[in-house]
TrEMBL record:
Gene3D superfamilies: Single-stranded right-handed beta-helix, Pectin lyase-like. InterPro entries: PbH1, Pectin_lyas_fold, Pectin_lyase_fold/virulence. This is Right handed beta helix domain-containing protein. The keyword Signal applies. It comes from Pedobacter heparinus (strain ATCC 13125 / DSM 2366 / CIP 104194 / JCM 7457 / NBRC 12017 / NCIMB 9290 / NRRL B-14731 / HIM 762-3).
Length: 410
């Protein structure tokens, strides 16, 4: 797998561990301490403790909240958009850093464009600054209907983003926005779309990192059941992507949707729960019926805690998966009404396809997971239509040994 080039020209400074969103630091028992993707390694080179502040290398600017009613208007002197347009992002070697005031609220009536190399953070630790859409006056512009559009080498660090149910895509990484990063960001309240899909984070660029973030309410809130509204937490189209140490909950559709174009994906130490509220047919992590043949996609899902998802916990098919040291349970969950018992009785982990023509799955390893019981009445662990010679399958730590291993494609 290609090593990610975390293209920092600045160091992340140590601050008190209490500033990290505590829900993003959920510990998982019975996971391998010597996992190659456990704490340390690439992540340690990026983060050396808390993730609340950046050392300044280029110029720095503090953006006051003041009484500005639209921080998305570049024509308004002193707005976020004005600072970004006026001073730009600097260079790779000398990036400009823009500081929001901690605890302050910044209202926006239109999208924000983050220039290449720019970093947006907040002053000091404590309550996160809030960048919030003005729902009454929001202009959903942009070809991808996004609120925040990232550029290459740009970084968002340690503040809160409230989408107010308005943009189709909350944070959008277009093709070419390579090496961009989200660190310790809260993103919440993605758009409700009947018959469509919205995302909190949409990644079409390469070498993107999303880490230590908290994602909530993608296309629905925690009181909506069996909706027809679409909403994913993260949709991945790019390559060489790291999604790690995040906490994600409440979505109409999937938690993480990995598209056919995506390769070299690392998903590590994420907590994902309460996904698939749209008619209970969406998974926590999903990438099946992708039609990529025997292409090795190199997708790693490790050390994650996944539970209470309406359909499957992890459902993937094709070649090139490593699924290890995860704790997955309570697939087929349907909230207080009980387990879902329709045609998609959720498995906690499923390597396989059910749509015609079936993907053949192979060159994959599924071991050392803690596979708990489900609530929908189906198998807790499934491997179907697989290439047996290149697939390693665990045989223990499966609730009641309730598994289905069936149908080879040798």
């Amino acid at each position: 797998m290609k090593k990610k080039k975390i293209n920092w020209s600045v160091a992340v400074m140590l601050l008190a561990a209490a500033t990290v969103i505590c829900s993003c630091k959920r510990e998982i028992t019975n996971l391998s301490a010597d996992s190659p993707l456990a704490e340390g390694g690439r992540l340690a080179k990026l983060l050396t403790g808390s993730t609340s502040s950046l050392a300044t290398v280029g110029s720095s600017y503090t953006i006051p909240a003041d009484t500005i009613t639209d921080h998305g208007n570049a024509a308004t002197t002193g707005s976020i958009a004005w600072y970004l347009a006026t001073y730009s992002g600097g260079s790779v070697a000398q990036p400009n850093t823009f500081y929001l005031q901690k605890g302050a609220t910044y209202m926006c009536k239109q999208r924000l464009f983050i220039p290449a190399n720019a970093r947006i953070s907040q002053t000091g630790t404590g309550t996160q600054a809030l960048v919030k859409i003005d729902a009454a006056s929001y202009n959903d512009a942009g070809s991808n209907h996004e609120f925040i559009r990232m550029s290459s080498n740009s970084i968002l660090l340690h503040f809160n983003i409230d989408l107010k149910w308005m943009p189709t895509n909350g944070i959008f990484f277009p093709a070419g926005a390579d090496d961009a990063q989200l660190i310790n960001i809260t993103v919440q309240n993605g758009k409700r779309i009947t018959g469509g899909t919205s995302t909190l984070i949409y990644i079409a660029a390469n070498n993107v990192t999303v880490t230590r973030c908290q994602l909530r309410r993608a296309g629905c809130d925690a009181t909506e059941e069996n909706t027809v509204q679409g909403g994913q937490m993260i949709s991945v189209y790019g390559q060489d992507i790291e999604i790690s140490h995040n906490n994600m909950a409440v979505s109409a559709q999937a938690g993480i949707g990995i598209q056919a174009s995506a390769k070299n994906i690392t998903i590590n130490k994420d907590t994902i729960y309460d996904t698939g509220r749209a008619a209970a047919t969406q998974d926590a992590i999903t990438s099946y019926h992708v039609g990529t043949g025997t292409t090795n996609r190199n997708i790693s899902i490790t050390n994650c805690l996944i539970y209470n998802n309406r359909n499957h916990g992890i459902h993937v098919s094709g070649y090139g998966y490593t699924i290890m040291w995860n704790k997955v349970y309570n697939a087929g969950y349907s909230g207080p009404t009980g387990g879902y018992t329709g045609s998609h009785m959720g498995a906690n982990i499923w390597l396989g396809d059910y749509k015609t023509p079936l993907d053949c799955s192979g060159n994959s390893t599924i071991t050392n997971n803690e596979i708990g019981c489900t609530l929908g009445g189906g198998y807790v662990f499934k491997v179907t239509n697989y290439h047996s010679a290149s697939t390693t399958i665990q045989t223990t730590n499966i609730c009641n040994n309730n598994k289905l291993i069936s149908g080879t494609c040798n």
